[in-house]
Amino acid sequence: MSSPAIKVPADLPAPHMQICAHTDDDLYFMTPDLLQSVRAGVPVVSVYLTTGEADGLNLASDDPARKTATPDYPGYTAARQHGIRAAYAAMITGSRRAPWVRETLDVSEGVVAEINTLEEGRVTLIFLNLRTCVALPEQKVLHLWSNKITELGTLRPSDSPIPARGDGRTLTRDGVISTLADLLTAYRPAVVRVMNPDPDRTRYDSATDTITYCDNSDHTAAALFALAALRVYEARDQSHRPVVESYSGYCNKLQPDNLSPAAAAEKFHYLAIYGGEDGHECTKGPGQCGDRPLGNRAFNRYYGQSTTHRWRGSTTWLQPRGDGRLTAFAVLGGRPVLWIQDTPGGDSWSGPETLGLWPDGDEARCLPRLDAVRDGQGRIHVFAVRALIALDPEEHRREVMHLQQDTPDGRFGAWQSLSSPHDRHNAIRRRALGMPTALTTSSGHPQIVLRNFGTGLSARTATDGGWGPWTDLHGGTLEGASAITLRNGHSEIYATTKTSMLRWHQPKPDGPLARDYATQLARPAGSTTLLEQTDGRLVMFSRQPGTGWLLAHRQLEPGGAWDTQPQLVDTTPGFGSVAATPLAGDSAVVLVQRRDDGTLAFSRQPLDGSPFSTEWAPCGGGPFAHTQAAALDAEGRLVVTTIGIDAQLHVITVRPTDEGVNAWPVRELSTHLPPA
User: How far apart are CA 391 and CA 146, in angstroms?
Assistant: First the structure.
C-alpha cells in the first residue's frame, strides 16, 4: 500500500479499528462499545469491505416508486456512505454536516479505495467498495473467501474522488487479506472489532448436511477476512498485540434484549441519522438523505436491541496463586498472556508474559475468552478455544485447549488439546462450539461445560489419569452457561433457553447431571452469577431484558425450588456479566458490574439471607474491552482488573471497611504496558 492519504496523528492514542462488511455494521452491532471509545477520546478507524448496493434503489421499502424505479447502484452506494459520514459527524461534533476530507487510497492489486477523515483523524472511514449486487448472486464476498470465485469487482460510488478508471477493478482473496493487513500495520490499533465468523443456525437438514444461518453471509466473510489479516499482521509485528472483539450480527434477534432503553435509543438515534430519518432537509438530492431502505425501520428489524459478543467474556480470569499473588489472564494478538502481582497484596505487577507453550508455528488463534478455575490442590487451570479458519469449510477447526500449573506456586506448561464434542462430525458442527465454563467437582478435578451444535451442553471432566470422554448433557440453550459446586459437593449448572432458565444438577456428588426444565425462572438478558449462601441456598444475580437492571433470586430451600419473584438490586442500567468475590467469612460478597456509560460500580451483598442492598459505589475503570474480573488479594483488598481500551491491564483496588461501600477507599493503579 502506498498513499499519502494515511496520516496517523502522533499525539492521539492508538486507535480502535472496526472491520465491517457494510456501512451500518459498526452502528448496529458494535455499539455501545464503539460509542464509549469515541467518548473516551480514542480515534476510530472503520473499514467497510463492500458497497452494500443491494438492488440499487435508494427508496423506502414502502415507497410505491420502487415498482418502477431504475436501479442506481453507484448512487445508492454513495447514499450509504453519506449516511455513515453523517452519523459519525453527529457522534463527534453534534452536527451531521461537519466537513470531511475525502481522498483516495491505493491498496492491493491496483485497486483505489476511498478514505475519509474527520477532525484531523478522530474518525477515519475506509471504503474498499467490493460489490454485493443482488443481480449478481454469485459475486459474493463469501464466495471470494472460499475461492468459489477468484476475484470480485469494485464499484465506484457516484460522488467519489476515486477516478473513473478505477471503477470495476478487482481484488482477489489474497488481495483483500493483504489490504487489511496493510491497514492494520499502518494504524497499529489497540482494539480490533470484527463481525461473527461462526453465526448461529436457524435450520439444519441432516439428510443433505446443509445449514441455514441467521446472519448475512457478508458479515461472516468480513469476519473471516479480518481474522486472516490479523494473523498476517501479528506475525509481521509481534511487538504489537491488539485486543480482538467479535460481535453477532442478525443473530441478535435470537437473543433477549440486553440493552437498556437509553442505550438502545442512542444506538437507534445514530442509525436514524444514517438512514436519513433525523428530520434534516435533503438539499442535494436523495443521495444526501442516507440509506432510505433502512430509514426508520432499524428498530423493526429486531437485531439492534442487543449487542452480543460472540466470544462472551468470563469474570474468572483473575485468580490467586498458591503464594498469595494474584494472576490475570488474557489474550493479546491471538495468543494467551498473563500478568502476575509482584508481591502478595502489592501494587506492582509484571507482564504481559506468554502464558504456557502454545503450539509452535500455529496458524490458528486463541479466541479472546479465557476461563480459569483452581482445583482441589490449589493449582490454576485455564481453558481457551483454539480457532483455525480456512477457505475450505472442512478445514475449519474449533477445539478446547487446557493449561495447568504443575504446583500451586509453579509454572504453566504446554497447552493440551481437549478436542471438541464434534471432532467425529463435520466442520459445520465444530464451528458452532460455544465457550467453555469451568468448575471444580467435589473430587477436586476441573470440569468444563459448553454449548454444542445441538444447542444443548457438552461436558468433559478431568480424572486422576487424564480426562474422561465428552458427555452430551442435552437441553436447548443460548450461549453463556453458569456453574457452581456447592459445599456439599453437588454441582449445578444454569443456562438460558428461549423462554426461561434450564438447570442441571447432581443428585449426589460426582454423580451424573440431571436436567430440570421447571425452574420457572424468567429468561435473563445474559449470563447469570451464582453464589451459595451460608444456609446452603443458591442466590442468582441476573440482568432483566430490556432494562439492564440487576435482579436477584434466591432458592426457597437448599437444592429446591426458586423464589420466582426477583428482588431489585440496582435500577441504574448496566451491561454484561457481573463479577463476584466473597469477602472474608463468606457471609457477604462484593459484586462488580459495568454500567451503561462503560464505567464500573461495586456493591456489598449479603450471603446470610438478609435483605439485598441497593447501595452501589462507582470505581471508574472504563471504558474497557471484554469483561471485568475481581478477587481479594493477600491484604484483603478487593482487586478489580480490566483490559483497557489501550490493550493494557488496568487494576483498581478497593479497601473494604465496616461502613457503606461509598466510604470504601478506591484507588486506580498505574496501567501495565505491553513490552515495546
Answer: 4
CA 503 to chain centre: 25
- 471 is a domain residue: no
Number of C-beta neighbours around residue 207 at 10 A: 5
Please identify which residue in the block is written with the cell numbers 483490559. Answer: 643
How many angstroms separate the CA atoms of 74 and 346, rounded? 60
Whether residue 408 has a cis bond before it, omega within 30° of 0: no
> CA nearest 92: which of 42, 29, 160?
42
The span from the CA of 63 to the CA of 267, in Å, is 25
Residue 652 host element (H or E)? strand 649-654
Backbone angles phi, psi at 256, to 5 degrees: -65, 150
Q: Is residue 436 part of a domain?
A: no
Say how far residue 494 (Cα) sits from the centre of its chain: 21
Using one digit for the tens of pLDDT, what is the confidence trace for 596-621? 999 999 999 999 999 999 999 999 99
Band the pLDDT of 362: cuts 50, 70, 90.
confident
Residue pair 61/69 in contact by the 8 Å Cβ criterion: no
Separation between Cα atoms, residue 516 and residue 504, nearest integer Å: 6
The per-residue pLDDT for 392 is 80
Work out the burial of residue 192: count CB atoms within 10 Å of its CB; fewer than 13 is exposed, 13-18 middle, 19 or more buried. buried
Is the pLDDT reported for residue 676 higher than 60?
Answer: no
The span from the CA of 394 to the CA of 397, in Å, is 8
Contact present, 108 and 179 (Cβ < 8 Å): yes
| Continuous segment of H or E residues that includes residue 371 | strand 371-374
Q: What's the total number of domains in the chain?
A: 1
User: Measured between alpha carbons, how far is 266 from 284 in angstroms, rounded to an integer?
Assistant: 27
Tell how strand 123-130 and strand 112-118 pair up. Answer: antiparallel
Q: Give the Å distances, CA to CA, from 106 to 81, 322, 606.
A: 19, 55, 61
- Nearest CA to 121 out of 44, 36, 188, 41 is that of 44
Please report whether residue 336 resides in a domain: no
Spatial contact of 661 and 604, defined as CB atoms under 8 Å apart: yes
Assess contact for 305 and 292: CB atoms under 8 A: no
Strand partners, 340: 327, 350
Query: Which one-letter DSSP state was computed for residue 521?
Result: P
Beta-sheet pairing, 457-463 with 466-467:
antiparallel
- List of residues 6+ apart from 235 with CB closer than 8 A: none
Residue type, 631: A
Q: For residue 379, what are the contacts with CB-CB under 8 A and spacing of at least 6? A: 322, 404, 405, 406, 407, 408, 410
Judge contact between 564 and 554, C-beta under 8 A.
no
Q: Which of 241, 197, 231, 209 is nearest to 14 (CA)?
A: 241
555 near 537, Cβ under 8 Å?
yes
Q: Which residues lie closer than 8 Å to 469 by C-beta, 6 or more apart?
A: 460
* CATH classification of the domain holding 153: 3.40.50
Range scoring the smallest mean pLDDT among 53-62, 252-261, 418-427: 418-427
Question: Do the Cβ atoms of 224 and 145 come closer than 8 Å?
Answer: yes
Residues 473/466, Cβ–Cβ less than 8 Å:
no
- Which domain covers residue 91, as residue numbers? 16-301
Which helix or strand (DSSP H or E) is residue 265 part of? Answer: helix 261-274
pTM for the whole thing?
0.96
Q: CA quadruple 559, 583, 372, 621: dihedral positive or negative?
A: positive
Read off the pLDDT of each residue in 218-231 and give the average, rounded to a whole number.
Answer: 97
Q: Is residue 500 part of a domain?
A: no
